[in-house]
Amino acid sequence: MAGLTCDQVFASKFRCPNTIAVDVAAGIPFIFTSSQTFQNIPDNGLIFTQGGSGPGCVLIHYSADVFSSDTPDNVMVVRPLLDSATLATPSQVVFTADDDEDSDGLFFRSRAFQFLFPAVAPGQHQIVMQWRSVGGTVINMHGRTMTVTHQ
User: Fold this and answer.
1) Residue 11 lies in a domain
2) Is residue 56 part of a domain?
3) What is the pLDDT of residue 8?
4) Phi, psi of 61 (to 5 degrees)
5) Residue 39 placed within a domain
6) CA 49 to mean position of chain CA atoms
């Protein structure tokens, strides 16, 4: 790929004008799962109305206190899902893994990530955060917030 700069090779650039509305879903209770298939994260879903006259960006900021113990393949993967079918950019991320490397039982770390849906049509939509355990071992979450910025 001669002649390309690093950001041309590794990044997609999006402009998101008019993203002015903000909706928030927050959960506090302690939760856990060992499911290897994606499950909705309790208290982290909402319905929002995308404004505008054409498709526009929807930005998802997700943050949570998370913990995975020191066992093989103890990896937490999270993703937002739009209207039960559409994946974001990126589609999913490793949110935490092997938090208790020294086996001292001290845990829970704050994590955050940004996701983008670059072309969401005007109208009502549902967004949920989902999670899974890669190895089927227990993963844990405490306080969590999903912020949706849209038109």
Assistant:
1) no
2) yes
3) 41
4) -110, 125
5) yes
6) 19
Work out whether the CA dihedral 107, 112, 117, 121 comes out positive or negative.
Answer: positive
Q: Which residue has the tokens 């506090």?
A: 28
What total of structural domains would you count in the chain?
1
Q: Are 77 and 95 in contact (CB under 8 A)?
A: yes
pLDDT value at residue 99: 61
pTM of the model: 0.84
Q: What pLDDT digit, counting tens, does each position of 60-91 carry? A: 999 988 887 667 678 899 999 999 999 999 99
Q: Give the HSE-up count for residue 93: Cα atoms under 13 Å, Cβ half-sphere.
A: 16
Express the helix, strand and coil content of the chain in percent, nearest 5 each: 5, 55, 40
What CATH code is carried by the domain that includes residue 114? 2.60.120.1340
Cα gap 47→25, rounded to integer Å: 10
Residue 62: φ, ψ to 5°: -120, 130
Residue 112 lies in a domain: yes
User: Range of 54's domain?
Assistant: 20-150
Beta strands in 55-138 (DSSP E): 56-68, 75-82, 86-87, 93-97, 109-120, 123-133
